[in-house]
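This part of the workshop introduces the protein records we will be handling. The question running through the whole workshop is how a given chain folds. To make this concrete, we reproduce a full record directly below:
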Amino acid sequence: MHFDDRLATVLRNRAAGERAARTQFRQLLDLLGERPQAGDKALKAAAYLRLIALGEIIPVKDRAAIVGESGWRFRNPELVKWFGEAHPHIAAAALYRARLTGDEWEQLIPQLPIRARGFLRHRRDLPDEAVRALDALGVSDRALPLPEPFDLVEEFATPDIEGVPELSEPEILPEEPEPLSLSPERLVPEPEPEPEPVSQPKPQPAMGGSEGIRALVDRIEAFQRTRSERSGDSDDPRLPLGEDDEQVAAKPVDQFLFGCDTEGRIDWAEPAIAPMVTGMDMASMAKDSEEAARTIRMRQPMAALAVNIRGAVRLEGDWVVDATPRFTRSEGRFYGYVGRFRRAVSGIEDRREAEADRLRQLLHELRTPVNAMQGYAEIIQQQMIGPVPHEYRAIAATIAGDAAHILAGFDELDRLAKLETGDLDLEKGDADFAAIARKQVTQLQPVLSPRVARFDADLGEGRAPIGLSQGEAERLAWRLLATLAGTLAAGETVSLKMRTGLEQVEFALTLPAALRKAADIFSVDTRAQTGALSAGIFGAGFSLRLARAEARAAGGELARVDDALVLSLPLLTAASGLPSPENQPDSAAG
């Protein structure tokens, strides 16, 4: 006998975020939208309660869009009645999607609210029983009838109002206004025309044709383009109204053109930069002053000359100069350099950012086929198209699970690339890292017991508030503990110690034997001893590297000290809940 436990499986999972809530909302709609069958009434009631809870997370507009989708079945009168009492947008989408039999409509329509019955009246595909039920309840279209046509001229020509003279003579009537003409001259002010030789006027194209409309559009675009160019011209004089010094200083300067005299002193630059660099000596700004002076003295080109500018805030920092010597055409006499300043970029950082960008592009290309395989596998496993043998459903379930595992690995790769390049900031908050570590160690101890392995934890009883959200802190702690627990050998014990100071918390973990021999612990390929504990699919080294990137993003550090792994995180404040230093356990980090 086959038991349908799909609803219980969906209710067993908790929606941690808005994306997960949308997914679970769709799953519940698909399961509850089937024909009513015998089953656990308490389970169905729990499903409706879950829909109510998910409705607090998902906005009304998004819920209405999900209900109006055509990818799920809607043949359950109970669900139709439940949605009929919801928000008007959601009720309208649900009643438009419902597919019930005539008898079901006949029994359901009297139980629906009056507003919901009005939504049904706009459907043209209802069975005859539903139409008769709506007619019996007096539900009709709410659309206003079209007004009857009447002649405005006749109404105006025959007024009969006491005290108002009759407008009978034609000369009293107002003149017929000039018809509105959508000509370019009326819509767009033209610039003053330049003097041109007298020529025969060209006929204007008729506005009714496509050529006239095209000309109108072109002239409007030309006017807007000219106006934007004028407004963006930085050479126009203007008063400093609405723009303070901080806003001006905030504009980044990545490069600028310059010129210098025969002695290497800047005598010209771009107008916005000239006041800040005029008079500076190229040789004194160069990091290798002797080499720069020799280049100027020998009249040689400046190729990637490293200089450092001090002074204006917008220009401070390292620059690279490329310049070419200038000579007079008549005598060939040297009279200076002309070239360009550009910001110096670290080769290592530039290469790392380029590699991270290529990795993100590769992950984007790989996610597409994996998502497709997962979707097709779920369609087969859930029999959304038709009945499928159980053997194929089992294979499809395995494929869907493997695809989800691969996508989780892609997410970790993408997260590491963004953290190491500074493109991702961890969510801020106020989490107690000590309480999180104690809770997770308690959860891991029973899993390690069958292998006679354990954590020898000395975490104290104090608090360690850090500037991360609860989810981010739990993810970091679990990544460390699960990685070490997965590499523990049978009968092995790992000691954990935590010390909380005035400014930071240090969490020291002794390395298992499988990781202790590695020269670089952040690049080892050690796999978990059991499938129950796994912090990732790329091995312990990658998981620890990702944990190090998360710690650095939080302002801390994760490093190896002898045979221990030490995590340091800054505390938010010296809260009163923290124990005094003399009452803390004397445990060094390492």
Q: What stands out?
A: Residues 321 and 341 are 5 Å apart (CA to CA).
